[in-house]
Amino acid sequence: MQQGYFITLEGVDGGGKTTQLRRLADAFADCGVPAVCTREPGGTAAAERIRGVVLDKDFTMNARTELLLYLAARAEHVDHVVRPALAAGKVVLCDRFSDSTMVYQGFVRGIPPDQVAALCEFAAQGLRPDLTILLDADPQDLLARRTQRRVEDRLEREGLAFQKQVREGFLALARREPQRICVVDALQTADAVQAEILTAVEKRGILPR
Ligand code: TMP
User: Fold this and answer.
1) Nearest-angstrom CA–CA distance, 130 and 115
2) Which of 74, 94, 101, 113 is the most buried (most CB within 10 A)?
């Protein structure tokens, strides 16, 4: 039986995943529960290098290349960070995982979903999140927040229509797996978003009430 607990945060760019991941980690720390915070693509030296390539706005690449790079990063990350932490009984909080691949490379780029799903399964060797928080918002409403941030990467440059498709893709996944994927309105205040996330985590008994 797998020990530990695997939580992922997903959603369109600019929805506040990084902030909420940090807040959730703090909540676990306050309860004395060790949590490992990590991200995809990334989380190991090699995977961070792959991240640099796949998000480099100076590159163009076809959808298959993009998919395989994300999955190469995942294979490294799962083997060297996520699985060892779960085996040690830790909670793992990960900024994006396979749902992003299903949405961006499958739903939006158009690679057949069954192929993306099979390759995700292979890259992660069957590892799936126990709980996924989907920070949902209309990308139009997030535009202001996004432009305040650093320089846009290759995917953020795709524009509003792309981001709207991303949102639809995530919502379609959430409809298919309502038990695992908890949808939270990302346009609320950061405190309100955090409160909803904590409720979802507490309901599952991972975080003491
Ligand atoms: P981030 O900006 O949230 O760190 O994510 C990096 C970008 O990579 C984001 O635009 C989503 C994208 N992405 C994919 O297209 N496929 C994937 O499998 C993952 C993990 C991220």
Assistant:
1) 22
2) 74
